[in-house]
Specification:
Blueprint lengths: L17 E5 L4 H12 L3 E6 L2 H14 L4 E6 L5 H14 L5 E4 L17 H16 L1 H5 L5 E5 L22 H25 L5 E5 L8 H9 L2 H14 L3 H4 L1 H8 L8 E4 L9 E3 L9 H15 L11
Helix pairs in contact: 3-4, 4-6, 4-11, 6-11, 7-8
Length: 315
């Protein structure tokens, strides 16, 4: 199948599957959830704001009247909240077929998570690392479960500074964002290696949306209190970006296409990989560095307190 021709019509019947989309109340996450639910999956919206999540669920049902949608309170900036969300999921569901690690923050002023981590690294990487680990049993209970983690082309400007993960030695918002998105890819490939080593059918893949016109671009200026910056960000997104529905296509392709294999990375096929139809794209050499990935994995287990025991033989 030519990836450049891939559309949501390529998504098959998902009626027997359970999917969790973090940040599923808006933007790319909402569009991802809408398509998965529209093709029959039972979809959980993992969101910090329950009211916004309920409105998002209602919007999905307004389009797909038979959609099965559930709200799962989830704050990725609080590891205790991540644990509670996982416990709630496991009380209600025995298996998880599709996990879309989609939620994230971008280029925000310095903030710390509840646990004291730099916000972008804490939410974009550590929060999802902890969530995936706490749901690992449910993922391994599903036949060929997919874990799709949303990265960014900005991973190419990132590097893992193990001596400054908490930004205690200085903070540059775009460098921190690039680091978190690089961490997403290192995590994806290491998860896949460890799953393979224990002969698990779990598939870990990644995606990036290109330049998508979502609220993500405006959040940083808004947190900085810059009205002008927020207006410029919104205008730039509207002028240059593709819509959230198009931005969700790489994630959906990674989550549903039958021939996806571990380590696949999907993004738009157009100019500068910023827009277009989903296709397999290359990640940087830094993202493929196995030694860095293994070190990051060990650090992430220590920082989050989440032990991927079922994959321990691969260590």
């Amino acid at each position: 199948m030519a990836r450049s021709r891939w559309t949501v019509e390529c998504v098959g019947d998902l009626s027997a599957k359970t999917a969790l989309v973090t940040g599923g109340n808006s933007g790319i996450g909402l569009e991802t959830a809408r398509v998965l639910a529209g093709h029959g999956a039972h979809v959980l919206l993992g969101c910090r704001d329950a009211d916004r999540a309920e409105r998002a669920a209602a919007s999905i049902r307004s389009v797909h009247h038979a959609a099965s949608v559930e709200v799962l309170p989830l704050d990725l900036a609080d590891l205790d909240a991540v644990e509670r969300a996982a416990e709630t999921f496991l009380e209600r569901h025995e298996r998880l077929d599709i996990l879309c690690n989609n939620a994230g923050v971008m280029a925000v002023p310095y903030r710390a998570t509840v646990d004291g981590f730099e916000l972008q690294f804490g939410v974009n990487h550590l929060g999802h690392f902890a969530l995936t680990g706490r749901l690992l049993g449910a993922l391994l209970s599903a036949p060929a479960a997919r874990v799709v983690t949303v990265s960014s082309a900005a991973h190419r400007m990132g590097g893992i500074d193990f001596d400054n993960l908490d930004a205690g030695r200085g903070y540059r918002k775009w460098r921190a964002y690039g680091q978190s998105k690089l961490a997403n890819l290192l995590f994806t490939l290491e998860l896949g290696r460890r799953a393979d080593a224990v002969s698990s059918s779990l598939i870990a893949a990644a995606a990036h949306p290109g330049y998508a016109a979502t609220d993500l671009h405006a959040r940083g200026p808004r947190m900085s209190g810059s009205v002008l910056g927020e207006l410029v960000a919104r205008a730039g997104s509207a002028l240059l970006g593709q819509g959230a529905a198009a931005g969700a296509l790489p994630t959906l392709c990674a989550a549903t296409t039958p021939d996806v294999v571990g380590g696949d990375y999907f993004g738009p096929d157009g100019l500068a990989k910023s827009r277009g139809r989903p296709t397999r794209v290359r990640m940087s050499a830094a993202a493929r560095d196995e030694a860095t990935a293994a070190r990051l994995w060990a650090v992430s287990e220590r920082l989050t307190g989440v032990d991927y025991e079922a994959l321990r033989l691969a260590a």
